[in-house]
TrEMBL record:
Protein name, per record: N5-carboxyaminoimidazole ribonucleotide synthase
Species of origin: Glaciecola siphonariae
Assembly, per entry: Homodimer.
Gene it is expressed from: purK
Protein biosynthesis found in the keyword field: no
Function per UniProt: Catalyzes the ATP-dependent conversion of 5-aminoimidazole ribonucleotide (AIR) and HCO(3)(-) to N5-carboxyaminoimidazole ribonucleotide (N5-CAIR). Catalyzes the ATP-dependent conversion of 5-aminoimidazole ribonucleotide (AIR) and HCO(3)- to N5-carboxyaminoimidazole ribonucleotide (N5-CAIR).
Pathway given in the UniProt record: Purine metabolism; IMP biosynthesis via de novo pathway; 5-amino-1-(5-phospho-D-ribosyl)imidazole-4-carboxylate from 5-amino-1-(5-phospho-D-ribosyl)imidazole (N5-CAIR route): step 1/2
Superkingdom, natural source: Bacteria
Amino acid sequence: MKVLVFGAGQLAQMMYLAAAPLGVEVYAVDVVAREVINPVDKSKFDMSIEYAVSDVHVITAEFEHVPEDLLDMAEKSGKLHPNMAAILTGADRVREKYVLDTNNIQNCPHLIVSDVSDLDAAVQALGEKIIFKASRDGYDGYGQWRLINSEELPKLKHAFASLDLKRVPLVAEKMLSFDREISIIGARDAKGNVCCFDIAENLHHEGQLHVSVAPATAVSAAVQKQAEQIFETLANALNYIGVLAVELFQSGDELLVNEIAPRVHNSGHWTQKGADTCQFEQHIRAVLGFPLGDTASKGVTAMINIIGCTSFSRDLISIPGCHLHWYGKEVREKRKMGHINVVADSYRELGEKLLLLLQYLPEEYFVLLRGEAQRLIAIEA
């Protein structure tokens, strides 16, 4: 069987590696060059996108910002999973907010800003502390602006005046205090079966995910159930097929959806070594109609992103339960170059392994790792 992935980055690469043992071939589309390539070695195939669409069994995507003409071609083939509407929802915060609100799913209080003149009303409705997010093309902290007090509003008005807010509106969200950021990742198949992984706890620095720990610490049964209900409501509302990620803010036992990602997700990379079936295999299973796999966690796992850095020792894989996943990219500031998964039997053991891991890493690139290691050790002290 054959799967075509729109996008040719590390997520397509990891789908390829997870699909191969199932006897599934994965092709990728470089959507900029408009070429069909091997997602691992990046070699070009002598075939057009149109031919690939006709030849494969299923078409999917590794990111939301696929040109709409390609999505439309795939949708018309009847092979696109998840569907075009779901992918576009993940690509556009205005669409996303509409889906959340119409399905009564709690999220941050917000207003849509399509003109600079809307800013005063947004401050009046939401208060002085607001985060403004571009409705499209924003990720890893890009396309975001913060208002801390009303004195900064004239400066923001000046900045927004140069933007085409009619074409790309802003979502103004009230800044809320919350205990932590978590995510739930799961899959839904064509029959409506849903299967979720354990909640992951996510630590961000400068708008980028640096560390995920799963299962998240101190998750009550009520919070796990609430997260799964949110996931299932969204997946059913979108008539979703494949793996879906839902990022959440937790405050006490209350969960608010931050955003969704209609694809395999960075905060699910821990599943490669920390779950019975990883998110990449699960996505292939779901879109091809194979039985969904067991999502049970195996011990506790930390995923550590390698960001803008190549100067580390690969001897880190000498640590038991430590696995390196390298993407083969050219180094660039704030670019995700790879990740490390560390699996242990307990949070304390995981924390101890993370401290050991720091012996092989330049700590200035892994600024949250020591503190997280110490927190995990203290849990079971």
